[in-house]
Design goal:
Elements lengths: L3 E13 L4 H10 L3 E14 L4 E5 L6 H8 L7 E6 L8 H7 E5 L11 H11 L4 H15 L14 H12 L6 E5 L7 H18 L2 E6 L2 H7 L2 E6 L2 E7 H8 L2 E8 L12 E6 L2 E7 L5 H9 L4 E7 L3 H11 L8
Parallel strand pairs: 3-7, 3-8, 5-6, 6-7
Antiparallel strand pairs: 1-2, 1-4, 8-9, 10-12, 10-13, 11-12
Bound molecules: adenosine-5'-diphosphate and magnesium ion (MG).
């Protein structure tokens, strides 16, 4: 049985309708009108033990709402969830033993206490044995460099430090499943890289199942084999990232610097996208023509002083899926 099963999951929020102006404000107080916001609409997926899955979508897509239902913080409007056999919102405590959670936007640690005291509190709350605590603290201190700020109150930590503290805290009780909601948000390049390395290691070495939301495309490319793509609360794709790339990623851009000689480029099989001085951007489909085929055409009329070939970024591929939908049926 899959470690996480989600079927027909929906979440609606009742949002007070706001009217503008003074009379409108009075009207809203006396006679509140509500509109229904469908944050998650009929989402289904299942995740096997040990997988690392990217739960991807633009801002407001419904990612955090889904994570909150999976962790038992929110009750679904309808649909089914099983996390290691538990219904999260019914057995929140039991579920908590099996999961670790990090919300990148908000710390789970005690703001005013030295960081180490948060860890000690969590040790008590989760009844972590002395031995397990020591083992984990040693490992996390080693990999995440916790010792540089263990005695600093959480509110004084840098964002990178806070994120490292939060992820260490979420793993103290050795959960089998880790939910990471935007774990790299706001981090600089180096801190992001460290966080990604750590997540990879936790997944690989401890076989922790990881569900990660992000809108950072580099996170996805570096961390996940599988992604569940959502948009406006609905699932638009579920499957291997490589398949998306194979389906949408056949376009390449050849960028060449040519020595100007007054002649125009004569291309067949490529499309001139733009020109800036001597630099030309040429788009081609690698199934129809190779980069070297294009280059040999160009060298018949021009000397090339520099060239690169670019693959499309996953970001542009994903925005195409949002616009057009995925042509093949999605995996459920
Ligand atoms: N507590 C709430 N009350 C009303 N609307 C909410 C609430 N939480 C989220 N929403 C709305 O639901 C949608 C999905 O939000 P969220 O799950 O936070 O998106 P994401 O994490 O993908 O950015 C958004 O339109 C958001 O404004
Ligand atoms: Mg969110």
């Amino acid at each position: 049985m899959a470690i996480i099963e989600v079927e027909g999951l929906c979440k609606d929020f009742k949002v007070a309708k706001r009217e503008t102006g003074f009379v409108g404000a009075l009207k809203s107080i006396v006679n509140r009108e509500f509109v229904l916001k469908e944050a998650v609409k009929d989402i289904s997926f299942s995740i096997e033990k040990g997988e690392m899955v990217g739960y991807i979508g633009p801002n407001g897509a419904g990612k955090s709402t889904t994570i909150k239902m999976l962790t038992g913080i929110l009750v679904p409007s309808s649909g089914k969830i099983r996390v290691k056999g538990n219904v999260p919102y019914e057995n929140r405590k039991k579920n908590a033993r099996n999961i670790g959670v990090v919300f990148g936007q908000r710390t789970q640690l005690w703001w005013d206490l030295p960081t180490i005291e948060s860890f000690e509190l969590l040790k008590e709350i989760y009844r972590v044995s002395d031995q397990q605590y020591k083992k984990n603290m040693d490992t996390f201190t080693d990999i995440l460099g916790l010792d540089e700020f263990l005695n600093t109150p959480v509110r004084q930590l840098s964002l990178g430090q806070r994120m490292r503290a939060d992820i260490a805290a979420s793993l103290l009780h050795d959960p089998e499943i880790l939910f990471l909601d935007e774990p790299t948000i706001g981090l600089d390049v180096v801190a992001k890289e460290k966080m990604r390395d750590f997540i990879t290691e936790i997944n690989r070495e401890r076989q922790v199942t990881v569900i990660l939301t992000t809108h950072d495309m580099e996170d996805i490319e570096k961390l996940c084999k599988r992604m569940v793509l959502i948009d406006h609360g609905q699932k638009v794709y579920d499957g291997e990232i490589e398949r998306v790339k194979a389906r949408y990623g056949k376009m390449r851009t050849l960028i060449v610097d040519v020595e100007e000689n007054g002649k125009g480029l004569c291309l067949s099989g490529g499309e001139l996208l733009k020109e800036e001085g001597n630099r030309k951007w040429i788009r081609f489909n690698r199934d129809e023509i190779s980069a070297s085929g294009l280059i040999s055409q160009i060298t018949e009329t021009h000397n090339i002083s520099d060239l690169t070939v670019e693959e499309p970024e996953i970001e542009s591929i994903i925005s195409r899926i949002y616009q057009e939908g995925f042509a093949e049926p999605v995996r459920v």
